[in-house]
UniProtKB/TrEMBL annotation, chains A, B:
Name under which the protein is recorded: BHLH domain-containing protein
GO MF, one annotated term: protein dimerization activity
Record keywords: Coiled coil, Nucleus, Transcription, Transcription regulation
Gene3D superfamilies in alphabetical order: Helix-loop-helix DNA-binding domain
Pfam families documented for this protein: HLH
Gene source species: Handroanthus impetiginosus
Protein localization: Nucleus
Principal localisation: nucleus
Coiled coil region boundaries: 33-107
Domain BHLH: 34-83
GO cellular component: nucleus
Superkingdom of origin: Eukaryota
DNA sequence: CCGAACACGTGAAAC
DNA sequence: TGTTTCACGTGTTCG
């Protein structure tokens, strides 16, 4: 331990604390023998850096309740938490899509269907009537929280869904236009 | 005030707060006469609060390069930027998929909807996602007295319809099994 | 020994 | 008025 600064304590702290050694002295040469600390400039620089960082952080956060130092950090904390939550929600939504698509790859065994659909597996009946006419019957249960959205407004319905087809369906992978045509054929008779 | 202290602040000052001003006092035997500022305790409390906030922020940020005050804020800044970027990317991905759902949610004007859907023919959008995955959007209006019957009971839906396909759909007329498979693929994601 | 980082007490200014 | 927030200069510790 160095004892060199003991006398600094005596003369600087005691009388310095009540005397004028404040910021007026910033960098102007005061006539009095102000023993400026060696780390004075360093400390000033450090403070400035810290202040700048805080300001930058403040500019980054959207909702700032108060410009004070503590509240800036608090707002930053809540902002980060909010962002984290948002990211989680979005990844959840994407995960739902992925799992929905992935599930379609699996060949549906009955137990999986039961597990997925509860007591009611989806049922589809397609009966050939005559020529190219087909009779279609669909029974399904809407899953809770599924990505598919079916909304109805005064008789109009909007259905959005993602589907993955078997590789060799029906004879080759239908392109968008073919699927579009096919679904239009069904809807036209709704 | 409780003196629960984080190890950040090494303030060993307890309830003393009278004249035992830590290190100054033990080497500098001034017999008291330290004019304690009125806001001394307040300032201590403020510092502690600020320190706690910084610590909390530090605990929230994942990658901390250094435990120093400035770097904590810097890391928080980069972390926020990263989170923002992630959110943007995820929303972009989702927007690509469910852009149809988004605009549907936004338009709440029912008159516009009914006017638009009432005059518009049924609309089908099929967008290729990846591989064999397809994103399907259907907008249609149920015709009055049409043959198709859609009943809903406790979340279960029964749809019956007859459809006739174009002669050359997609490459040849799909048989009942193929149609059944295809519709199951869609319904499973409902 | 030097530089970086920090807590501290204090005066002043802001609310 | 008083309470709160801030910047400042300082001593001290650590690498």
């Amino acid at each position: 331990m160095d004892r060199v600064k003991t006398e600094f304590n005596d003369l600087c702290i005691t009388e310095g604390s009540k005397m004028d050694k404040r910021k007026n002295v910033d960098q102007n040469e005061d006539e009095g023998r102000k023993f400026i600390s060696k780390n004075l400039e360093a400390e000033r620089k450090r403070r400035k850096k810290l202040s700048d960082r805080q300001l930058e952080l403040c500019s980054l956060v959207l909702i700032i309740t108060n410009m004070t130092k503590a509240t800036i950090i608090t707002d930053a904390i809540t902002y980060i938490e909010e962002l984290k939550k948002t990211v989680e929600e979005l990844t959840d939504q994407l995960r739902q899509i992925k799992t929905t698509c992935a599930d379609e790859e699996k060949t549906n065994s009955e137990e999986e269907d039961i597990k997925k659909w509860g007591t009611m597996p989806p049922e589809v009946q397609v009966n050939h009537i005559t020529g190219t006419k087909q009779w279609i019957k669909i029974v399904f249960q809407k899953k809770r929280g599924s990505l598919t959205n079916v909304t109805t407004s005064r008789g109009a319905s909007l259905v959005t869904s993602s589907a993955e087809f078997a590789e060799n369906f029906p004879c080759e992978l239908p392109d968008a236009d073919q699927i579009k045509k096919f679904l239009l054929e069904i809807i036209k008779s709704f």
